[in-house]
Specification:
The chain is mostly beta strands and 506 residues long. It folds into two domains: 3-46 and 376-504, Sandwich (Jelly Rolls); 50-372, 7 Propeller (Methylamine Dehydrogenase, Chain H). 1% of the residues lie in helices and 44% in strands. It is built from one helix and 42 strands. Strands 1, 3, 4, 34, 39, 40 and 42 form a seven-stranded antiparallel beta sheet that branches. A hairpin with a 7-residue loop joins strand 37 and strand 38 (458-459). The two termini are 16 Å apart.
Amino acid sequence: MEISYYNLSGGINQALTKTELGSDTKKIYWTDSENIEILQNRGIIKQKGNTKFLELPEQEAVTGLAEMRSGRFLKLVITTLSGKIYVYNYSSQKLVKLEKTITGQNPVFANFLDGVLVSSSSDSLFYIKNNDNNEIVECNLKDDKEKPVYSEVLAVYNGRVWVASGAVLYYSALGTYDDFSTPQDAGYIRNFHTNTDSVTALKPYKEYLAIYKKSEVYLLTGMNENDFTIVPFANKGAYSSKGIVNVENKQYFLSNGIYALEQVGELNQIQLGSEISKNIREEFKSFNEVKMPEALSLHYETKSQVWYFFPYSDDNFFHVIWINDYLNKSWYKRVVPQNITCACLFNDYILTADDKGKIYREDYGSTFDGVPINFLWKSPFLSLGAIHHRKIIDEFYFILDEAYDNKFDFSVYKDYDSEYCDDAEKIYSVHFEHLIWADDEMSDKLPCHWAKDDENIPIWPVNRDTLEKAEISESNYSVQLCISGTASDESCAIIGIQFREIYNDD
């Protein structure tokens, strides 16, 4: 008997038992992984690392990062623990420290017109212009008692700046960022529903502004105070705007799980979708509930991924990043050695920052800024037939992608025992290309064809699959495959696995 698996794209699944996990014959789910991602929607490959993008002049923790894309320059806004604000010009590669400082350690940002808005729980709203001298404009947002409004809930919607403080929504005059007082244009909305809980998040979605509280979400529409309409939508809430991303026709938000607002049907109706985090539900038990408003999500559109930075109870930094591959509906982990404090999208890639004033470009290079990438992948326990029969596997093969070097340790856990495994075996396959030149007598026997525009040029297909044999000893009820590597020159690119000559040993 022969059993092959050509789809390894299931990702980590914590929702199934050991026996259930390996029962799907069409897709391989993962028991665990570290720094492994999906290759070509079917295989697995070692993730890329990160490299230093920028270093601040002083070694202190970075508290905030934001892209300033509008205007003449592409810039990066950086805030630090001591309250410093830096602006980095991507074109000139110049870093400038602004005179203004902040006191809040969890600032929020929003791009609007030709600059970026900044606010925090202890800093009133201000604006950094995207001009030559990064001019600061105080927005003078005040409540009805003329006291400054401090807030970590900020959004831009339909040409206005929206800020939430408690249960009150403040909005600017149309097309402005510092006018919150003009009658019949700027103003505030309070008591829009019987639920008087504080607003925790604001995020535009389609033609709506989604308004989140801890356990509810509302949808606002309208262009001015005469037609603003707010309707309750669902009994699910969000911790903060930082945990919300728009992906295609959906808006993912972080609640007691991860859910989505989605537009469906011919009438483009909005509905609450099912939980997308069910496969990693167990992981939520390890998160710090108090710090969940600090959780961060980023839409890495280039790779059809959403990166989630969750606060763990036993970690003051973001060392573990969970990645949702929404095309394959799969989850996997990224584990970095740096003490990551915050992150942002910049120029369509992901930047992270640490507690020493260093900023890194992620998904880049073969190391974590010089530190080798440890990688690990564990298959489910595969019974390869009847679960109550022992099997002998005479031949086992990895199907490797020859476009990449493969060098990794291979070991096997047996009989649903996750504590003991066989000694590791080295798997080694170096990428190389063969070109075979033949005379006319052999041409019909070789897999080549001739270019239409030049019949003298042969086109050779690239066979990217190669079989690499590995050993699985003894007879077993089930086997779990484990690959790993710790050195800089170790890697993997696996697109399938094959079990040949399987015999019952009863």
